[in-house]
Specification:
By secondary structure, the chain is mainly beta. It is built from 3 helices and 26 strands. It binds manganese (II) ion. Manganese (II) ion binds next to strand 5 and strand 10.
């Protein structure tokens, strides 16, 4: 059995732009190898937004290089546009898996419709690192619809399989390194044993409710980091709960990050800043 090595989480929120009230549940800035291949997990909301007739809230044009961003929308809608000519709206239950690779410039805002109507807002953004050989790959998007995400029911709950596989069911996301991403709902008093790949980093994020993980009690916006060894973990939901399970094969390479760039060396960070300032990332089409 795996055990809980540490409990991560952060209740001190900050705003990303004026649209996303975020708590960073873990970050590579604190310890990169322990969470590899993941870099950070931002939990935006839950929060209720009033109807807004002004320009939609959000975060304007900004770059990324060297990793992937995975946006999961639970409530509300997020619209995006980018320098590769892509754009669209991520709705409730949908996932956007963006490979920044060599570099994108994009913007992320509440959709016009959600902004005008207001209402509950809740999303997660996960950053997944790329191995050195893929850091400068072409930018790409996977727009993953709710219908394309299989849901596996089990005694005590269900799991939407976004990436990897869960009890033999394969998720739709293409990944550069082995990753599982399961979006789980647990019923009150559920007892669930999860089989997990040995040698993978495993992070279990409690988004809502209270869950006992390998004997350790966690509340909402807390993350259990599990031991590398062991092949399973026992969960008990003390009430109804939403849990996001991340597992991934660690990438054994240096992690050097600066804001929206995550590379392997300081020189590569300076190159990223130079390339962005020189306009080599392109721009969002007007
Ligand atoms: Mn971004």
């Amino acid at each position: 059995m795996k055990n809980v090595v540490e409990v991560l989480g952060n209740n001190q929120g900050h705003w990303v732009g004026d649209g996303f009230p975020v708590r960073s549940l873990f970050s590579y800035h604190r310890h990169a190898q322990e969470v590899s291949p993941f870099l950070l997990l931002d939990y935006a909301g839950p929060r209720n937004f009033e109807p807004n007739d002004a320009a939609p809230r959000g975060v304007g044009s900004h770059p990324h290089r060297g990793f992937e961003t995975v946006t999961i929308v639970y409530d509300g809608e997020v619209s995006h546009a980018d320098s590769a000519g892509g754009g669209g709206t991520i709705g409730r239950g949908e996932v956007q898996w963006m490979t920044a690779g060599a570099g994108v410039v994009h913007e992320e805002f509440h959709s016009r419709g959600f902004s005008k109507a207001g209402g509950p807002f809740r999303m997660v953004q996960l950053w997944v690192n790329l191995p050195a050989k893929d850091k400068l790959s072409s930018p790409a998007y996977q727009a993953i619809t709710a219908q394309s995400i299989p849901e596996v029911a089990f005694a005590g709950g269900s799991a939407r399989v976004i990436a990897g596989s869960f009890r033999g069911t394969q998720g739709p996301a293409r990944t550069f390194t082995p990753v599982n991403l399961w979006d789980m709902t647990l019923e009150a008093d559920a007892d669930v044993t999860l089989d997990l790949p040995s040698g993978h980093t495993v992070l279990v994020a409690v988004l809502s409710g209270h869950v006992t993980i390998a004997g350790e009690g966690l509340g909402d916006a807390q993350v259990a980091r599990l031991s590398l060894d062991g092949a399973s973990v026992a969960l008990h939901a003390d009430g109804e709960a939403k849990v996001l399970v991340l597992t991934g094969e660690p990438i054994d390479e240096p992690v050097v990050g600066h804001g929206p760039f995550v590379m392997n060396s300081e020189a590569e960070i300076h190159q990223a800043i130079d390339d962005f300032n020189a306009g080599r990332f392109g721009a969002i089409a007007a």
